[in-house]
Amino acid sequence: MLKAGVLGAGHLGKIHLRLLQESTEYDLIGFHDINEDYGKEIEKEFGYTYFKNIDELIKAVDVVDVVTPTMSHFEAGKKAITAGKHLFIEKPITNTVEEADQLVALAKEYGVKGQVGHVERFNPAFSAVSSKIENPMFIEAHRLAEFNPRGTDVPVVLDLMIHDIDAILSVVKSKVKKISASGVSVISETPDIANARIEFENGCVANLTASRISLKNMRKSRFFQRDAYISVDYLEKKCEVVKMKDAPKEAGDFDMILQNAEGIKKQIYFDNPTVSPNNAILDELNSFADAIRNNTTPVVSLEQGTEALKVAKQVINAFNE
Question: Which Pfam family would be a valid example here (predicted)?
């Protein structure tokens, strides 16, 4: 088992602590939080070992799990890597692209593995259809959330939209060509609502909307490709795959047939995969252990986390253009 330590015991940090303790892949050694009084409260309530000194915790483990506020990701990640420890770091990887590039370089220099917590990659609905998404040419994503003070220290793009940016970059095998975007601040000092149009060199266009002041929660994406439509509901953990094929000469009574202006007939049919329930955070943590043990590339590498951050920053920069 890999010895693991958690940096940051906030809302998400406590979830990571619980799951690492449950996991058969890790031996949870303890955690560090900058607030000593709070850390001791967590230790007393849940029984996790609190380390007052961050360096002592890092020294005692094989894997450092960074679940601190984004502004401190770089320093925490750097401490872990330069100590020769594998790094799991929550999204966004860092506050700036320059910091992310440095972590990537340091990980290579020190020969350690790193994974970024883009948890939607492990959402069972997305996992069920990701292999069926082939050369999508139009993508539409909506990620709407009710207001929560947590996360308002960063723009909604880094808080919410970056999930969809990462998922889209994982299935579109092309470089970004152009980004246009708009954002509006309603409650926070940074934009609370944002819309972005990302154009890729291969002609694919992705339209993304994110809001953290909605009346209801929604996390849906739709992928359109040649002869197929694929929808993913991350919130309800459901997916749908609608495909087209040449219509049979003799259509059955219940066959769905479409005919275009040229007289070409296509049959519509459903190819919905089975969605297997899971705990996405536990799965992403366990997958990182697999990558370390088998010396393979993590599902969401530091490089991929950096690319998602670069695109997110381009979206934010486009607000002012």
Answer: GFO_IDH_MocA_C3
Crossing angle, helix 36-46 and helix 11-22, to 10 degrees?
Answer: 40
The CATH number for 2-112, chosen from 3.40.50.150, 3.90.550.10, 3.40.50.720, 3.40.50.1370, is 3.40.50.720
State yes or no: pLDDT of 264 exceeds 80: no
pLDDT in tens, 178-205: 999 999 988 888 889 999 999 999 999 9
| 3-state SS, residue 288 | helix
- Stated pTM of the model: 0.92
The alpha helices in 173-301, defined as continuous H runs, are 280-294
Please tell me the distance from the alpha carbon of residue 82 to that of residue 103, in angstroms, as a whole number: 10
Q: Where are the beta strands (DSSP E) in 176-251?
A: 176-184, 193-200, 205-211, 218-225, 228-233, 238-246
Residue 104 reports pLDDT greater than 70: yes
* % helix, strand, coil for the chain, step of 5: 35, 30, 35
CA 142 to mean position of chain CA atoms: 14
Q: Hey, which bits of 82-136 come out as E strands?
A: 86-90, 114-117
C-alpha to C-alpha distance for 307 and 292, rounded to whole angstroms: 22
When pLDDT is averaged across residues 20-42 and rounded to a whole number, the result is 97
DSSP state of 259: E
Q: Both tokens of residue 189?
A: 């000092």
Domain range annotation of the chain: 2-112, 121-276+310-318
Concatenated DSSP letters for 130-176? GGG--S-SEEEEEEE----STTTTS-HIIIIIHHHHHHHHHH--S-E
pLDDT at 152: 64
**93 SS3 class:** coil
* Class for the domain spanning 121-276+310-318: alpha beta
> Using DSSP, how many helices (H) and how many strands (E) does the chain show?
10, 14
